Amino acid sequence: MKDKKMMFLIVISFLVLCFAGCSKSDRSGGKHLKVLTELQYREKVEDAVSYTRQKDPKITIEVEYISSDEENRETELQKLRTQIMAGKGPDVYILDNMSYVTPDKAMPLFENPYKTMQSGALASLNRYMEKDSYWEDSAYQKEFLNAGQYNGKQYIIPLSCEYTFLISDKNDLEYLKDKNLTEWLIEAKKTSNINLKQLMLIYNTCAGKWVQEAADYEEKEVLFDKNAWVEFYMEQVLYKREQFNQVGTGHFGTMTDITSDTQSILTVPDMKGKKLASIHAFGAIGMSSAYKNEAYEFLMLFLNDEAKTELEKDGLGTSLNGTIDIQTPVQESALDQIPVLYNIEEKQMNLLKESYRELEGAYFYTETEHALDLKVDEATGRFDDPNADFKQWEATASELGEWAYKNYEMQIAE
Questions:
Q1: What is the mean pLDDT of residues 8-26?
Q2: Using N-to-C axis directions, what is the helix angle for 181-190 and 226-243, rounded to 10°?
Q3: Confidence band for 246, pLDDT divided at 50, 70 and 90
Q4: Could you say which of 3.40.190.10, 3.90.226.10, 3.30.420.10, 3.40.50.2300 is the CATH number of the domain covering 31-161+277-341?
């Protein structure tokens, strides 16, 4: 009898230990955070984990990296989405919204961040941001925050972005500054600027950027003007037919194209004249997190200089420097790191900063923008032959415009 009683107590003790180990807080007051992120952010994330553990040894952090392999990633994403819907998602998300534009075309976890913000999967960050002096003191582009808001609450914080700019070895771009993308195309037909000509020649591969704010998810309104879109597409087609064999190699849109000869840098607008950046990396906190304050502090290490400042006191370095990847940072102060990466001289760096200041905000690429990139590029390839039936191309353009409009309707209605 005593043996049975002893065995019963051992089993009970074992179960208690198991449940204690599985909980997010142990008896010593320890806290457990789970971070979900991409493999390309490993170095930064590991440095953030190391610093957090050093700062507070009671915090344990589990990091899960989403596979970059297309097949494995799809399986992982399905599992993660099921967990999130069941209220068992991670505490911290550090994700790449533009992963599908990489060579392996890996899909993002949230195919439409705007809808994710409405779903209840993410926690509002307002109460934490209001107490954080970073938002008053930093050089963060506050306009970028709008993309991560829903009903006046902040759910997502952009961490990096990308935007297209035009460069020239002459001071000959100022007249384009207040024009929209359609007007840029008109100018490309009559200009001698090889870079503008080249930009408009291959911009069909960026069809998702032609209209950068295509839907208002709060007002449930489609802003995509399909008729204007089709008209622009056909004008671009005609331009390509006229210029294909006449335009040489130009330079635009990448840091590596900026040289000591560069005299002008201008942000490329969309069809409505808006100049927005597309969001790459972003951070968020799961609604199910039991430690939202700690999760927020961890997330902010990718923007603020806390870790860098504290570690330098001990003569230690860190990769946490206000950027998370090689894309364009979301705070102007971090732009100063670009010359080191791309060997850009001071004069050209000032020009780049001027183009950066032109940005009016940011937006998320969704599955529709991504599909437009692919569909327009594929259609353009089919009709590259100068003898191709122009009416058939026009019909294809109309079909694509109609498809995009209906897709945006479905997205805001879901």
A1: 35
A2: 20
A3: low
A4: 3.40.190.10
